[in-house]
Write a structure and sequence with these properties.
The complex is a heterodimer of chains A (323) and B (377).
Chain A: H1 2-33, H2 41-59, H3 62-86, H4 91-114, E1 131-132, H5 146-154, E2 157-158, H6 159-177, H7 179-189, H8 191-196, H9 201-227, H10 239-249, H11 254-274, H12 287-302
Antiparallel strand pairs in A: 1-2
Helix pairs in contact in A: 1-5, 1-6, 1-9, 1-10, 1-11, 2-3, 2-4, 2-9, 2-10, 3-4, 3-9, 6-7, 6-11, 7-9, 10-11, 10-12, 11-12
Chain B: H1 10-36, H2 40-52, H3 55-80, H4 88-106, H5 112-141, H6 145-167, H7 191-196, H8 209-226, H9 228-238, H10 240-245, H11 250-267, H12 270-277, H13 288-298, H14 303-326, H15 333-348, H16 354-376
Helix pairs in contact in B: 1-15, 2-14, 3-8, 3-11, 3-13, 3-14, 4-5, 4-6, 4-11, 4-13, 5-6, 5-11, 8-9, 8-14, 9-11, 13-14, 13-15
The chains are: A mainly alpha (323), B mainly alpha (377).
Chain lengths: 323, 377
Amino acid sequence: MDLFHTIIAILESTIRVSVPLIFAALAGLFTERAGVFDIGLEGKMLGAAFAAGAVAAVTGNVMMGLMAAVLISVLLSLVHGYASITQRGSQIVSGVAINFIVAGSTVILGEAWFRQGGRTPALSGDARFQTVTLPFADAVRDVPFLGPIYSELLSGHFILTYVAFALVPFSWWVLYRTRFGLRLRAVGENPSAVDTAGISVIWLRYRAVICCGILCGFAGAYLSLAMSAGFVKGMTAGKGYIALAALIFAKWRPVNIMLACLLFGFLDAFAIRLQGNPLPLIGQVPVQLMQALPYILTVILLAGFIGKAIPPKAGGIPYVKER
Amino acid sequence: MSNPYAKLPGWAEYGLIPLINLVVAFLVAGLVVLLVGENPLNAAYHMINGAFGRGEYIGFTLYYATTFIFTGLSVAVAFHAGLFNIGSEGQAYIGGIGVALACLWLDKTMPWFVVFPLAIIGSAFFGAMWAFLPGWLQAKRGSHVVITTIMFNFIASSLMVYLLTKVLKPLGQMAPQTRTFEAGGQLPKLDWLMSIFGLNLGNSPFNVSFLLALLAAFGVWVLIWRTKLGYEMRTMGHSPSAARYAGIGEARITVIVMMISGGLAGMMALNPIMGEQYRMQLDFVQGAGFVGIAVALMGRSHPAGIIPAAVLFGMLYQGGAEIAFEMPSISRDMIVIIQGLVILFAGALENMFRPAIGRAFAGIGRRSAVAAQTRGA
């Protein structure tokens, strides 16, 4: 029974740490499927987290915070879009630039506005997302086995957590069952075919980039309004890159993305739990190995040793109409 | 691929456009300073004074520049072959192992000029090995070098935390770092070079590795524009299909270029480890690998451009510390913003001002042609 509770606790924190990864990886899914690579997920998430923390602290309203996060993230996406779609610059370079600009400005602006060492003021009450208790969660708590799963594992998360998981099938539906999704996928594979059909490649890619901005905004808002009570400098701590890894690991497919994010989240939660406790049979595992595991797994996958990850064919190439 | 932009004269291509991009980046950075409620002109004054005001400050500026020359060259070499090595950060970090091993082994028995060459080989070797895998994976297994090098940066940082806390740390010490090296592991400072110009180096760690950086820059120039390998690299960078058609082994070039790039990044570790700290600390690279991206873009991947670009970033780092001291609301993170803006304007948006400049040149050209004609008539 003790082991059972430990497992529930690990899985519960797995869900908690996976949520920003799911948001960010789905965000990446939209742009990359449209042929715009984005290694600026990290920066957008960080910028969104800062905007959310700052606005929620000033207004005391969590929804204003969320909106600010989405707004800033979409603006950053548009910068990326302008550089890589309109100006046909390198998508990778633009993503790197955004990561740096955000990393620096969140600290500078945070310090200038709040003077708390790059933090935003601690949030409480209405300025922060509250956990949601699912119906009957308390009533079924004592039911053996299923009770704890329902009331501890599934209930008691933030509303954004449920939104993240709901977005997985929704993204699938948008990408595979709507006209927009079909065109979006086509523009990532063969933009000139889409252009021949009389559909604007530029506008489609911009829409994809905006979708990415909205989702990154949710990821950032989750970090500073739900997971923590306020923004802390550098709080994304590489999550944007892990999300990128998850996106590739999932071979650019929505449901796989959820599973990959849960896997990477589990590794994270497990590593924290493992600290100082030797594992049966294997013995002491260095924490650093656990932390590096998502990256190592992604490299192995990319190398084609676990199936093959084939990126969208037109990804990374700016579209030039024939002259 | 067709070139959509008019051809510009060399000085405009390599001088004017980078300058305009740089000026725009600084103007936007100035806006951030305004937003914080400080005077950008004051900030610029403190920065330039802090970077060049005294011999000691110049020493620090050039110390940082040394680091950025190495990482800038590392990124630039890969650019020439059409590869984007974001992994200079991790390669430099791993390169530190080579430096540390050479120093820990021989610092008590040998003078610095014996340890130094070994440390160079060690750092280049470890850096190159860390870049070999991503290069090989791209060449043979088709995984993109950008993604793998990002992943390798994170793996390197985990690996180094492990090594420094569990393996290389002396017993009974708390801080995750190696022991301090004896005289053999300490590079001499370049005070003689500074005294030629009548400057006093003070406490700054400006050391011999600067000369090595200049040598490396020259070596890269020879490699890229004066050797067969360099020619093959550039061919592949311009047009992979042309390279394939000419019988240039893409896989071989990719692996070799990545290893050269990694080796250069690794050599960066000499400067902070043997030149300043005299020990290997956690996180000694401090983002220099990423600065290398900005330096390479700014310097248009040419050693003659990379050296001034590296000095510029050295100035930002040293002068930025001075701004932080004079204007407490502007911390050193300001440099990170400027770095990002330079990458954005000199890299991703490099073509933004090109059409306008091209038109301006075309206009001048036409007018002078017309003038010549009227004179002739």
